Amino acid sequence: MQSNKLILCADLLDLTDDPLRFGEDSVRFQAEGALVIEGGKIVDRGTKADMLARYGSSATVKEYENKIIVPGFIDTHIHLPQTEMIAAYGEQLLTWLKEYAFPTEMKFADYDHAKQVSEIFLNELLRNGTTTALVFGTVHPQSVEAFFESAQARGLRMIAGKVMMDRNCPDELQDTAEQGYQETKALIEKWHGVDRLSYAVTPRFAPTSTPEQLNACQKLLQEYPDVYMHTHTSENVAECEWVKELYPNSQDYVGVYEDAGLLRKRSVLAHGIHLNDREIDCLCRTETAIAHCPTSNLFIGSGLFRLKELHSRGVQVAMGTDIGAGTSFSMLQTFNEAYKVQQLQGNRLTAFEGLYLSTLAGARALDLEGVIGQLEPGCEADLVVLDPEATPLMQLRLQNSNSLHEKLFALMMLGDDRCIFQTYSFGQLVHSI
Ligand code: GUN
Ligand code: ZN
């Protein structure tokens, strides 16, 4: 009988735990290693010599020269419809939404447009090595239908939701508490848990939902305990002031979501820049994760995220691109900016911490540890084959690197889609340079 095993041979690099807490003890590097893949999953790993001796005679073998295999990147906050208005000039959050995001999102009333952008969006994710993302659609259910259909056809692990928004936005983008509830419920019933797709209840942010709508979100979370909750918090100072006016009875911004019963494991809030002590404690207590989106925070001038402080206090932090306020689909470039955001606060992030934030931390934020985010037998074979010598400058820099950390750090600072040699999802090649 023919075996369907696939063996990928290269250097292997992943994290067994959090290097922000455990340092290099949590870094797992296997020079000249091999992953054995079958049925979409990693079934064994070890040295190339051992794996070939054990399985080589009955498997397809791919040998990579001077490449590093890492887990597929996990983007914990991104907007599908904003793909086409990335790099919009000159505004901060509230005017940026009005001038750029809302008019673009109106186009997603048209299913064909949503489908076309979904294909482009998934191509971008995969050519940047991102194999799982937590995705905002638009208010239109068809935006999420189109996205899930495209992701399903490619066999990807993706999480998405229709935006719920019943005030303070253009009429064309508004639902009501009841309509948002019904449309979300229908999408959950149709898509949540189908293949590798999951649903996220997605109120845009507190200013665009009435308390009635947030209550409808809570009802959905009670009815479907394993769906996700995905929204924004404390990104911009003017936004925070507005939330105080709109929700005078809540203690603070995070308190609005807490009062509505929306915070728990599998809740992901983007940004969290201007949080007070109570809010940070509340995130820990409720096991709510924060998606740190540095390219966005710098681009629309939102502020500097206190990653080290939140992490050391026990908040689960992962990384997001926040396309289209974010300026790159690349998690390498996103880490580049995260590094600089920490430099501006007198903190250092190592390359290993950067890789953690883009892989295992994302899996933890999404409650998917053991499923994705590591090169571990039992995990799904969502992987990236990195080329650390993708450009002449990178070749030169590599020749002058003495340690694994120096090499990886240079790769993460200088690298982008040119370094993503190949991407695998569920053991299938889904992108190749
Ligand atoms: N807050 C509410 N909506 C958005 C959005 O689309 N992008 C960002 N960056 N922040 C938001
Ligand atoms: Zn966002």
UniProtKB/TrEMBL annotation:
It comes from the Bacteria. InterPro entries: Amidohydro-rel, Guanine_deaminase, Metal-dep_hydrolase_composite, Metal_Hydrolase, Metallo-dep_hydrolases. The keyword Cytoplasm does not apply. The keyword Metal-binding applies. CDD domains: GDEase. Residues 68-423 form the Amidohydrolase-related domain. GO terms for biological process: guanine catabolic process. GO terms for molecular function: guanine deaminase activity; zinc ion binding. Its cofactor is Zn(2+). PANTHER family: GUANINE DEAMINASE. Belongs to the metallo-dependent hydrolases superfamily. ATZ/TRZ family. This is Guanine deaminase. It comes from Reinekea marinisedimentorum.
